[in-house]
């Protein structure tokens, strides 16, 4: 947790002193992030947070489902159950650590684990697992889940959802800011004063870098960028990576592991032999360039605040600053919120919006034809 005062937003109509919990497990599949938040007189504040590593066997099963895109209904049902139990245990661990009882918490907001996201097909859909019934039953706290599909029902991409939260938490009158989340996928929220936020997925964040180091060194991520720093950028490979139709698409747009994965990368590597460390370094440069290109299209100069696992990658942060010399790049610590918990806090906030039956302003982000109340409530 940051030692600075917690970031907050005011909302006089909200329940005073109510606790909410946010659960987030993103495309990196490294951990379940849990944030305890409180609605109080000062606003909406993060009070505590923990990150619970996914059990290796569960992580591998999730990766298999996401990467191979084929699974039996029996296996899918069992993983749905196992992941929900892991989420519930993470919540109970946090409550125990903070000495807070379940009846003090109004609701849990659970993102669930995305196993497939397909917004551009004839019959668009998105699929998250992590049975909210089980989470509610095992924690004895109401659980709000399935946040994406109502937006898709109104013609939206269903992603990203966090720009509305970024707007509520970080927007400042007459100030342009970009909130950059670098998880498995990277997404930006463009905040133009108090106007409705605009944002989209820029492309891969940590996902390809994580997959590559895991393939060669059996590490879940490139800690401290040690592997990338031993290599050099291969311009031939970089050009090939950048030559993907996704980057030329206009927003709204969203993507995920079903698009950018090891199979996609292998196809880019087929015609040449590359040193593994050079591939790692090139993937980092690829991530930085695709992010920066999009930010510079939206803003000639502004403050960029980074959250997500990518905020802890020193070389990636260095390259973001180097590629955007007219922008100030720093983490959300500068805004008084731990960069590792921003998305988990977002889902606590989304749970609050659902409990209060408020629409979430996202149509400018997702392309939906209207803003909607998002999420389904599963009572304990």
UniProtKB/TrEMBL annotation:
<keyword id="KW-0547">Nucleotide-binding</keyword>
<comment type="similarity">
    <text>Belongs to the anhydro-N-acetylmuramic acid kinase family.</text>
</comment>
<feature type="binding site">
    <location>
        <begin position="26"/>
        <end position="33"/>
    </location>
    <ligand>
        <name>ATP</name>
    </ligand>
</feature>
<dbReference type="GO" id="GO:0016301">
    <property type="term" value="F:kinase activity"/>
</dbReference>
<comment type="function">
    <text>Catalyzes the specific phosphorylation of 1,6-anhydro-N-acetylmuramic acid (anhMurNAc) with the simultaneous cleavage of the 1,6-anhydro ring, generating MurNAc-6-P. Is required for the utilization of anhMurNAc either imported from the medium or derived from its own cell wall murein, and thus plays a role in cell wall recycling.</text>
</comment>
<comment type="pathway">
    <text>Amino-sugar metabolism; 1,6-anhydro-N-acetylmuramate degradation.</text>
</comment>
<protein>
    <recommendedName>
        <fullName>Anhydro-N-acetylmuramic acid kinase</fullName>
        <ecNumber>2.7.1.170</ecNumber>
    </recommendedName>
</protein>
<keyword id="KW-0808">Transferase</keyword>
<keyword id="KW-0119">Carbohydrate metabolism</keyword>
<dbReference type="Pfam" id="PF03702">
    <property type="entry name" value="AnmK"/>
</dbReference>
<keyword id="KW-0067">ATP-binding</keyword>
<dbReference type="InterPro" id="IPR043129">
    <property type="entry name" value="ATPase_NBD"/>
</dbReference>
<comment type="pathway">
    <text>Cell wall biogenesis; peptidoglycan recycling.</text>
</comment>
<keyword id="KW-0418">Kinase</keyword>
<dbReference type="InterPro" id="IPR005338">
    <property type="entry name" value="Anhydro_N_Ac-Mur_kinase"/>
</dbReference>
């Amino acid at each position: 947790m940051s030692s600075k005062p917690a970031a907050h937003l005011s909302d006089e109509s909200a329940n005073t002193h109510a606790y909410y919990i946010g659960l987030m497990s993103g495309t990196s599949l490294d951990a379940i992030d849990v944030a305890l938040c409180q609605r109080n007189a000062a606003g909406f504040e993060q009070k505590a947070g923990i990150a619970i590593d996914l059990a290796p066997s569960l992580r591998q099963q999730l990766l298999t489902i996401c990467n191979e895109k084929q699974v039996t209904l029996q296996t899918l049902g069992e993983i749905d159950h196992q992941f929900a139990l892991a989420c519930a245990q993470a919540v109970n661990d946090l409550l125990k650590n903070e000495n807070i009882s379940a009846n003090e918490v109004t609701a849990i907001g659970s993102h669930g684990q995305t196993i497939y996201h397909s917004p551009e097909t004839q019959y668009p859909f998105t699929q998250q697992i992590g049975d909210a019934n089980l989470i509610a039953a095992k924690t004895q706290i109401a659980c709000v889940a399935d946040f994406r599909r109502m937006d898709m029902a109104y013609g939206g991409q269903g992603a990203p959802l966090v720009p509305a939260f970024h707007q509520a938490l970080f927007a400042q009158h007459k100030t342009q800011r970009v909130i950059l989340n670098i998880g498995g996928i990277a997404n930006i929220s463009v905040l133009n004063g108090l106007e409705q936020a605009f944002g989209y997925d820029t492309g891969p964040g940590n996902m390809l870098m994580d997959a590559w180091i895991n393939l060669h060194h059996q590490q879940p991520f490139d800690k401290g960028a040690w592997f990338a720093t031993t290599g050099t950028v291969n311009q031939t490979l970089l050009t090939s990576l950048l030559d993907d139709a996704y980057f030329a698409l206009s927003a709204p747009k969203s993507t995920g592991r079903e698009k950018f994965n090891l199979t996609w990368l292998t196809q880019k590597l087929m015609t040449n032999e590359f040193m593994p460390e050079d591939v790692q370094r090139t993937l980092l440069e690829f991530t930085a360039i695709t992010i920066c290109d999009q930010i510079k299209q939206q803003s000639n100069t502004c403050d960029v605040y980074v959250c997500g696992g990518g905020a802890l990658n020193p070389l990636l942060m260095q390259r973001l600053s180097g590629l955007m010399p007219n922008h100030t790049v720093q983490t959300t610590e500068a805004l008084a919120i731990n960069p590792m918990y921003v998305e988990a806090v977002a889902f606590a906030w989304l749970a609050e919006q659902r409990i209060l039956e408020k629409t979430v302003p996202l149509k400018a982000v997702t392309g939906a034809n209207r803003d909607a109340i998002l999420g389904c409530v599963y009572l304990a």
